[in-house]
């Protein structure tokens, strides 16, 4: 039976992502890998993360790539110089360093095309997968794309999303709380365990959840060395 893995915020941690996929998930071509976004920024190898995802696509793996707020910030920085300081403040400089450039406009165009073609959300019969969440104050939560990238602390209203569960990243959550939400069958599961925050108790892992079995895989960070 095909597996459907949802993978949390990677944030430039390519070695960690490779370890999660190649040593723990070990997907077949019939399986699906669903990424919640935030592939870039803060971690040391954003270029490596995007390159690896492109390679998986070329190898024929089934991949759903969602857009995160960090991809949004990078795209805005490329279009508007006044948006660059906000991107840099939120971890954009390590992304430039990974590409070996000083300006976002020097990044090769095929990488920017990758970011431009990301989806906002993914639906199954039982789940909605999105980067940050949905605006349940609206009659149609799917009409607010800004909320999909940026919202925090939303209260899920299942009947507004076809009685599905919501799975997202964006807001780092302690591992014990993440595990509890999976095991308790909660309507709102946050898969962001703050992969880059190595050394902070309860954080520092990249997580993946298999949707049919609700099996959780936790990969400790391999990119950032902590004393």
What is the gist of this entry?
The chain has helices at residues 14-25, 46-58, 69-79, 84-89, 92-99, 109-116, 145-150, 175-183, and strands at residues 4-7, 32-35, 62-65, 121-123, 127-130, 165-168, 188-190, 205-210, 215-220.
Question: How does this structure look, described?
Answer:
This protein is an alpha/beta fold and 227 residues long. Helices cover 32% and strands 17% of the residues. The protein has helices at 14-25, 46-58, 69-79, 84-89, 92-99, 109-116, 145-150, 175-183, and strands at residues 4-7, 32-35, 62-65, 121-123, 127-130, 165-168, 188-190, 205-210, 215-220. It has a five-stranded mixed β-sheet, sandwiched between helices. The longest helix has 13 residues, at 46-58. The chain is globular, with a radius of gyration of 17 Å.
> What would the average pLDDT be, to the nearest integer?
97
Q: How much of the sequence is in beta strands?
A: 15-25%
Order of strands, widest sheet: 3-2-1-8-9
Distance between the termini: 42 Å
Low-confidence stretches: none
The coarse overall form would be globular
Computed over alpha carbons, the radius of gyration is 17 Å
* SS summary, helix count: 8
Number of strands: 9
Order of helix and strand elements from N to C terminus: EHEHEHHHHEEHEHEEE
Give the helix level as a range of percent.
25-40%
Main beta sheet: 5 strands, mixed
Class of secondary structure makeup: alpha/beta
């Amino acid at each position: 039976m095909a597996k459907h893995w949802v993978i949390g915020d990677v944030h430039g941690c390519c070695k960690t992502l490779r370890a999660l996929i190649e040593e723990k998930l070990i997907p077949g071509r019939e399986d699906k890998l669903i990424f919640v976004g935030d592939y870039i920024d803060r971690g040391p190898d954003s270029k490596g993360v995007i390159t690896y995802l492109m390679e998986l696509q070329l190898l024929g793996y089934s991949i759903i790539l969602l857009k995160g707020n960090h991809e949004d910030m990078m795209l805005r920085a490329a279009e508007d110089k006044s948006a660059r300081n906000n991107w840099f403040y939120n971890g954009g400089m390590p992304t430039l360093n990974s590409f070996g450039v000083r300006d976002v406009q020097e990044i090769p165009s095929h990488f920017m095309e990758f970011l431009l073609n990301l989806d906002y959300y993914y639906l199954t019969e039982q789940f909605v997968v999105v980067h940050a969440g949905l605006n349940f104050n609206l009659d149609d939560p799917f009409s607010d794309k800004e909320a999909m990238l940026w919202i925090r602390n939303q209260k899920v209203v299942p009947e507004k999303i076809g009685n599905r569960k919501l799975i997202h990243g964006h807001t780092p959550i302690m591992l014990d709380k993440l595990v509890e939400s999976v095991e308790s069958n909660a309507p709102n599961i946050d898969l962001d365990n703050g992969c880059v925050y190595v050394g902070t108790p309860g954080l520092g892992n990249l997580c993946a959840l298999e949707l049919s079995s609700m099996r959780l895989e936790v990969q400790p960070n391999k990119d950032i060395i902590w004393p």
